[in-house]
């Protein structure tokens, strides 16, 4: 199956509410979609880079540039998903861009064989429990209202974004209001340093499932030190860009949980390797999110159905993000999302909706 060409499609997706983290506020999701065209099938991939390099060094314009100048010319001529990673390996970094291309090739090739993403990856469930990531709000009262609405919708786990000046007080308020049975965790997006260890230990009082990425992305050693001073388990997000990083983090004792995001680690195949490694070591994993449209969400939900994903993920319903998703919406049922069962991603963009939100397209012949 030869690749005929690749379309880069930029879309602008207004968020239903601004999403504030310790690194910035997002009001519109600026997304780069990739469409791989072959004579027999087309495949879609979503690049999770954000418009500015604040979560990690990647950003949407940079991803589009590296794709057209370096990654697409290096792709194998035939659409073999297993060959994509090795072909792109000589180009350093740019994992989110690589992941989007690999996902699109995977989707195209699975649509031809009729196999679903979930089946291909090794999913063992047909639905997955869902958590929700709650941004920093203007007040504790607003946060409590926001969390109440999500709990009412059925989310089985709540993650609060935290940062210096927005940590112990909001966490205490949520724990007091919703009680000890609420599965609750926090995400600092690398906003603290080891000098904050005593302050972070105050969160131990609230029986959190985990604290995600408290310290800098490139500091596994300090996370290992922090882990010895906290009772709350440490989960790494930004720090884990590969299975090799996950192995190092486990060896050092830098984390006891890993947030798996396929974009951050260079693709769904590397994400599965991290799942396998963590599972073998008894380290829990869960599927993170990057405010994906239905394209990326379909693949994430399939991944989250693998047996080592023992904690609820940030795989929320489409309506938590967008008024109108580019695919038929993912809807929560009893706190779960169904894993798509159709060939490939099992979902496709709705042409009219896609055209409505498209800001630019570029065709790169092969
Ligand atoms: O750190 O997990 C994160 C969104 C964008 C960038 C980084 C993160 C997040 C989220 C939201 O927490 C996850 C989601 O609902 O998609
Ligand atoms: Mg995170």
Structure notes:
Residues 140-233 form the Mandelate racemase/muconate lactonizing enzyme C-terminal domain. It comes from Microbispora triticiradicis. The model has no long low-confidence stretch (mean pLDDT 98). A seven-stranded parallel sheet has the order 5-6-7-8-9-10-11. A four-stranded antiparallel sheet has the order 3-2-1-13. The chain has a two-stranded antiparallel sheet with strand order 4-12. The protein has 366 residues and is α/β, with parallel strands linked by helices. The protein has helices at 60-74, 81-88, 95-113, 117-121, 140-153, 168-178, 197-200, 220-229, 243-252, 262-265, 268-280, 294-303, 351-357; strands at residues 5-21, 24-37, 42-47, 127-129, 131-134, 157-161, 184-187, 211-212, 234-236, 257-260, 284-287, 336-338, 358-365. The radius of gyration is 20 Å and the shape is globular. It has two domains: 5-114 and 347-365, Enolase-like, N-terminal domain (Enolase-like, domain 1); 119-338, TIM Barrel (Alpha-Beta Barrel), CATH 3.20.20. Bound molecules: 2-succinylbenzoate and magnesium ion. Magnesium ion is lined by residues 187, 189, 212-213, 237, 259, 288.
List keywords for this structure.
about 375 residues, alpha/beta, TIM Barrel, 7-stranded parallel sheet, 4-stranded antiparallel sheet, 13 helices, binds 2-succinylbenzoate, binds magnesium ion, Mandelate_racemase_N_dom, Mandelate_racemase_C, Enolase_C-like, EC 4.2.1.113
């Amino acid at each position: 199956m030869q690749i005929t060409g690749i379309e880069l499609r930029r879309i602008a997706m207004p968020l239903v509410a601004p999403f504030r983290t310790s690194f910035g506020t997002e009001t519109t999701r600026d997304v780069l979609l990739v469409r791989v065209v072959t004579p027999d099938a087309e495949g879609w991939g979503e690049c999770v880079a954000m418009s500015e390099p604040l979560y990690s060094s990647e950003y949407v314009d940079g991803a589009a540039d590296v794709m057209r100048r370096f990654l697409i010319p290096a792709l194998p001529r035939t659409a073999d998903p297993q060959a994509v990673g090795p072909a792109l390996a000589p180009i350093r970094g740019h994992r989110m861009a690589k992941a989007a291309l690999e996902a699109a090739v995977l989707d195209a090739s699975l649509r031809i064989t009729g196999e679903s993403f979930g089946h291909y990856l090794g999913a063992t469930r047909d639905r997955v429990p869902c958590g929700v990531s709650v941004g920093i709000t203007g007040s504790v009262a607003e946060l409590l209202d926001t969390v109440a609405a999500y709990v009412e919708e059925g989310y089985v786990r709540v993650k609060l974004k935290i940062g210096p000046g927005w940590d112990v007080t909001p966490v205490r308020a949520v724990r007091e209001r919703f009680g000890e049975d609420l599965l609750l965790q926090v995400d600092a997006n690398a906003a603290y340093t080891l000098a904050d260890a005593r302050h972070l230990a105050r969160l131990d009082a609230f029986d959190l499932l985990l604290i995600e990425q408290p310290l800098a992305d490139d500091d596994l050693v300090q996370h290992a030190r922090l882990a010895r001073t906290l009772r709350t388990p440490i989960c790494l997000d930004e720090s884990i860009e590969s299975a090799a990083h996950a192995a190092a983090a486990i060896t050092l004792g830098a984390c006891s949980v890993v947030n798996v995001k396929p974009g951050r680690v260079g693709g769904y195949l590397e994400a599965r390797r991290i799942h396998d490694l963590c599972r073998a070591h008894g380290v829990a994993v869960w599927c993170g999110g990057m405010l994906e449209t239905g394209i990326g969400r379909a693949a994430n939900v399939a991944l989250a159905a693998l047996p080592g994903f023992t904690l609820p993920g940030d795989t929320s319903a489409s309506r938590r993000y967008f008024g109108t998703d580019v695919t038929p919406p993912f809807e929560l049922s009893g706190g779960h999302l169904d894993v798509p069962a159709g060939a490939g991603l099992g979902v496709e963009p709705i042409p009219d909706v896609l055209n409505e939100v498209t800001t630019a397209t570029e065709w790169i012949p092969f």
